[in-house]
UniProtKB/TrEMBL annotation:
<dbReference type="GO" id="GO:0003700">
    <property type="term" value="F:DNA-binding transcription factor activity"/>
</dbReference>
<feature type="domain" description="HTH gntR-type">
    <location>
        <begin position="14"/>
        <end position="81"/>
    </location>
</feature>
<dbReference type="InterPro" id="IPR011711">
    <property type="entry name" value="GntR_C"/>
</dbReference>
<dbReference type="InterPro" id="IPR000524">
    <property type="entry name" value="Tscrpt_reg_HTH_GntR"/>
</dbReference>
<dbReference type="Pfam" id="PF07729">
    <property type="entry name" value="FCD"/>
</dbReference>
<dbReference type="Pfam" id="PF00392">
    <property type="entry name" value="GntR"/>
</dbReference>
<protein>
    <submittedName>
        <fullName>GntR family transcriptional regulator</fullName>
    </submittedName>
</protein>
<keyword id="KW-0804">Transcription</keyword>
<dbReference type="GO" id="GO:0003677">
    <property type="term" value="F:DNA binding"/>
</dbReference>
<dbReference type="InterPro" id="IPR036390">
    <property type="entry name" value="WH_DNA-bd_sf"/>
</dbReference>
<dbReference type="InterPro" id="IPR008920">
    <property type="entry name" value="TF_FadR/GntR_C"/>
</dbReference>
<keyword id="KW-0238">DNA-binding</keyword>
<keyword id="KW-0805">Transcription regulation</keyword>
<dbReference type="InterPro" id="IPR036388">
    <property type="entry name" value="WH-like_DNA-bd_sf"/>
</dbReference>
């Protein structure tokens, strides 16, 4: 029997392409690049400090996701989307996340709960300092640890990919969101210590509902739907 092939290492070009795609995805979802905006290869490459190649590959990825369209002889343009698209994205994330949270509530160890408490403290410190990048990273670290504690590896992978459509810095830059996130996480940790599955699921669902309201309100204020 042949030995399984060793996966090829991720090239720097692939990594750059993913980073550019993430940047453009967040800009589109936050309304910074509204529908109808042309994404120019050379301008985008210069702004991000990369060559044209990873930008071209990133746009190919976003075309596959339906986020941009290629207009012949004109280039890539941001595709239209609606409130229903936002609702669908959050419905998918909420459905997966609540399933994960129910498992986490019964499977997480005391050490795991202590780690979530420490990560909540780190989030609170970042929020207090108003450091947007640190807030976004602390929030990501909390959810990564929480999702891993459930032992639902495939579901966690699907949730990670669905979460790509959230513009993290839009939330991290909002002081009221930061305060609410810290409060939610502290309540979640307390519910995990009690092994209160229903409360853990409720708190998980409420955080996603809040995220949907904030993003929809932001896009409303920008007049995106008109």
């Amino acid at each position: 029997m042949n030995a399984p092939a060793t996966p090829a290492p991720i090239s720097r070009r692939e990594q750059l392409s993913d980073e550019v795609a993430a940047h453009l995805r967040a800009a589109i979802m936050s309304g910074t690049l509204p529908p109808g905006t042309f994404v120019r290869l050379d301008e985008t490459a210069a702004r991000l400090g990369v060559s044209i190649t990873p930008v071209r590959e990133a746009l190919r990825t976003l075309r596959g996701e339906g986020m941009v369209q290629l207009e012949p002889h004109r280039g890539h343009v941001v595709a239209p989307f609606t409130r229903d698209d936002i609702a669908d994205i959050f419905w998918l994330q909420t459905t997966i996340a609540t399933e994960i949270s129910a498992s986490a509530a019964t499977r997480i160890t005391e050490d795991g709960i202590d780690e979530l408490s420490r990560l909540t403290d780190a989030l609170a410190e970042a929020v207090g300092a108003g450091d947007v990048e640190s807030i976004a990273m602390a929030e990501f670290s909390f959810h990564r640890a929480f999702n891993r504690s459930a032992g639902r590896i495939k579901l966690a992978w699907f949730l990670l990919h669905a979460a790509r459509y959230l513009p993290p810095n839009l939330y991290a830059a909002d002081p009221s969101w930061g305060a609410d996130a810290v409060a939610n996480h502290r309540q979640l940790v307390a519910a995990l210590r009690r092994r209160d599955v229903d409360e853990v699921v409720r708190l998980t669902r409420s955080q996603f509902a809040d995220g949907a309201r904030r993003l929809t309100r932001r896009l409303d204020e920008l007049g995106l739907w008109t």
